[in-house]
Amino acid sequence: MPGIDWSLSRDTTTERVIGRLKELIGERKFGPGDKLPPERELCSLLGVSRPILREALQALAALRLVRIRQGDGVYVTSLKTDLLLEPLRFVLRLDPTAIEQLYRARQVIEVGITELAASSMTPEAERRLEEILAESEAQVEDPKAFSRTDIELHETIARLVTNPFLTVVIESLNELSRAGREFTCTVPGVTPRALEEHRRIVAALKARDGRAAGRAMKEHLENVLAAWQSAREGAVGGQGAKEGESG
Fold first, then answer.
1. Is there a contact between 66 and 195 (Cβ–Cβ < 8 Å)?
2. Intervals of the chain under pLDDT 70
3. What is the per-residue pLDDT across 225-234, written as a single tens digit (0 to 9) for each?
4. Are 228 and 186 in contact (CB under 8 A)?
5. How many separate domains does the chain show?
6. What is the residue-wise DSSP string for 112-128?
7. Which of 42, 57, 79 is the last residue of a domain?
8. Which of 121, 170, 213, 231 satisfies CB 3.0 to 4.6 Å to 204 for a cystine?
9. pTM of this prediction?
10. What integer pLDDT is reported at residue 172 of this predicted model?
């Protein structure tokens, strides 16, 4: 195909085919919904065998970058963030320690974002944050609804910084942590405490005090992580007790 460099390094392994196709998709040589060239043509363009190409395409399908339609061809997916995060969600389900690392990543990123957001507060932002707090107060007894509103508050704060990259990062972290949030919100006392912590964060933002807002966010995220760890230990301990009883 004209205008596209299909060349690979001398070591034409499956990994390098995957890498080249990812580059072409990332460079938007093939955009969302586009159909890739037929298998035979791809093999010729990339200089690889069909088994190597098929293995590479299966890997890209697992990453949700392409969709293989039997008898039709290979298409680039929508490339929407939610779709691309699915493999990471699977990792989080397999490895509970990954969830802890996810929470720690939030601590590193969100504290700084909250500090920056204080200088970008507007009357409209104040009103929206107060509305979210009111919604949260009405949802304290509904863990799932509370966790959704919790995500909205954090994303509203992130958008105040008006940095598209940071916004995408926060939205991605929030999407990955959705299940963990819902689980943590079921722990007695967590939602009322989180609401009070949210109020302190918003109060500091309204006062345009970035340092205080950052400290409040740091304390909030540390408490959330501690609640998740406690809930997980309780769940694991309870499962062990059940297994012991059944034995």
1. no
2. 1-3, 5-12, 82, 85, 88-94, 96, 235-247
3. 998 888 877 7
4. no
5. 2
6. HHHHHHGGG--HHHHHH
7. 79
8. 213
9. 0.66
10. 82
Length in residues, the chain: 247
- Whether 108 and 183 share a structural domain: yes
Contact 133, 149 (CB under 8 A): no
CATH no. for residue 29? 1.10.10.10
Task: Let me know: does 213 contact 205? Beta carbons within 8 Å.
Answer: yes
Torsion of CA 82, 83, 88, 94, to 10 degrees: 110
Phi, psi of 22 (to 5 degrees): -65, -40
Give me the pLDDT at residue 39, please. Answer: 93
pLDDT in tens, 72-102: 999 999 888 767 767 766 666 667 677 788 8
Query: Would you say 78 and 33 are in contact if contact means Cβ atoms under 8 Å apart?
Result: yes
CATH number for the domain spanning 123: value is 1.20.120.530
Distance CA 34, CA 42 (A): 15
The answer to whether 76 and 65 are in contact (CB under 8 A) is yes
Q: Which of 14, 182, 180, 10 is nearest to 101 (CA)?
A: 180
Helix residue ranges per DSSP H, 30-80: 39-46, 50-62
What confidence score (pLDDT) does residue 2 get? 62
Handedness of CA 86, 63, 95, 194 (dihedral sign): negative
pLDDT at 170: 87
